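pasting for ref
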Amino acid sequence: MMNFLKHKILVPVVALCAVAFCVQPLFAQKQADTLSFWLMDNGLGSQKTVQKIVKKFQKETGVAVNVRQLNWAQAFDEISKAFEGKAENAPDVLQLGSTWVAHFAAAKKIRSVDFMMDRMDSSRFFAEGFKNTHIADEPGSYSAPWFLDVRALYANERLWNDLGIQKEDVDSYPQFLGVLRGVAETELKTSKGEPVAPFGLPGKDDWTGPQQMAPFVWSYGGDFIARDSLGLRSALLDSNTLFGLAAYLKVLGDAGMAPYSLSENSVQNANRYIQARQLFLCGTSELIRKMAFSIEEGGLKATPIAEDGIMVVPPPAGPAGRISFVGGSHLAMPVKRNTSKYALAENLFMFLLQANNIDAYSRSIGFLPADKSIVRIWNQDERYSTLVESLENGRAFPNIPEWGTIEGVLIHMSNEMGAALSTTKDPSERRHKLAELIMKAHADINQILKYKGELPAEGVAMVEGVLVKDIPEVVPSNLQQLAAAVKNSAQDVSTTNPALVIVLVLSVLGCVAFTIRRYTLRDE
C-alpha cells in the first residue's frame, strides 16, 4: 500500500457573514443521526477549535458530531482501511491531503460534489488549491479546499539586519546562492560562539525532499511529469528540470552554504533555525503562529528565534519566475452503501466551509485559509503579506491518482542524493552517482505512468553534462567586504596566540556589522 506522507496572527476579527453559507435546519434528530468527522493533527489549536465548530453545528442543527483526530504518518493507511469492504466504518466527512484526493476519487471512495458547486461557490477558492479537487483532465470535483500550506523562505531578522542584507540581494537564484556563499565566508557566530549555518536542506531520512526541490525545478522552467503524444511521462530528463535540480544539488552538497544538510532532516533544519544557528529556512506558514505559544504548549515563544525575530523573504526567481510550493488539505465525503446520512453529511461539509469557520480554524493552526476573501484580510498582517504573494504564484503537485507512488520515488531519490553527496568527495564521481539516481527515478516514474517511450541511450552522460555546468554566485558587496575583513584579520594574527585570534576576529565581525547597520539605518 502506498505510504502517503504529510503535505503539509492575530489580526482584527471581522464579520464574514456575507460569504458564509446557510445550513438547512434539522430538528429533533435521533442518536442514530450522529455524524463522524475525521481530521489529522494539524498543529496547535486544531483539536480545541474544531470541537468548538462542531458544537456550534450541533446547536444550530441538533446533530451531534464525533471527531476523531489521526496522526499524519498513519492517516492514509487508516483511511484506506476504513474504505475496505462496505466502507461503513468510514466517516461522514473527512480531511484529505490535497494530493490524496485524486487517488481516492479514482478508486471511487469519495463522493462527487458537483451538485453542491452553487452552494459552495467554487470561485472563492485559489485556483491552485481548487485544482486538486478533481482528477487531471477529467470532469468532476470530489472535495473542497480547506487550508493551504505555502513553503516560505524565512530569515533570522536580527542576523539579516546585522549583516546588512537587503531583499533585492536574494532576488534571483544566483543572488541567493551568492548571499549564502558570502555569509559562509564571514564565519558568522552566535552570541555563544556557535557557528551559524547560512541555510539547510533535508538530506537524510526525510520525506519533504520533493517539496524542497520543487521551487528550484519549477523556477528554472522544469517539472516532475509532462505530457506528450504517448501520454504522461517523467520530466526529470528535460533540460530545464535538470538545471533546477543542479541548483538544488549545488546547495545541498555545499559544505559552506548548507553545512549540515547531508546529516540532517527537515525537523533538524527547523530546530537549528529556531535556535538562531541558521540564517535561512524553507518552512511552513505555521511557524508564524507558533511564535504566539509557549514552549510548554508546543510553541516558540521565548526561543532564540522569537527573540531575534523572523522575516518572510520572497522566494528567489529563476528563468521561469518566482514559484513556491503550495500544498494543503481538503474536505471530502466518503461513498457509503447506506446513504441515509448523506444529507446530514452535506450540511456538516458546508458548515465547515463557511468562511467564518475556515477563518477560525486556519487561525488556530497557522496555515493559510483556502478562501480568497479571508486571505485578503490576512494580507493586512505584514507577516503574512509575503506568504500571500507566494500563494498567488505558487504551484501544487500534479492531481493524478499515481502521484502518491511517484512522490515516494522522488523522496527516495532525494534521500539517496544526500547519501551520495555525503559518501563521495570526488566531483566527477559525485556527478556520475547523482546522474544514475536521476535516471533510475526517471525510469521508475515512467513505469508507474505506464509510459511506452524509450530511455535515451546516453542519459547518464547527458545528466552529467548539465550537472557539471557552474551556476553563478552574486555575492553582495557588503558581504564581500565583511568576508575580506575576516580573512585579513586571520592572516594578520596568524602567528599570534590562538585565543587572541578568536577575540580579534569576533571584534572585526562586530565592528563591520555595526558599521553596515549604522549606515543602513542612516540611509533609511
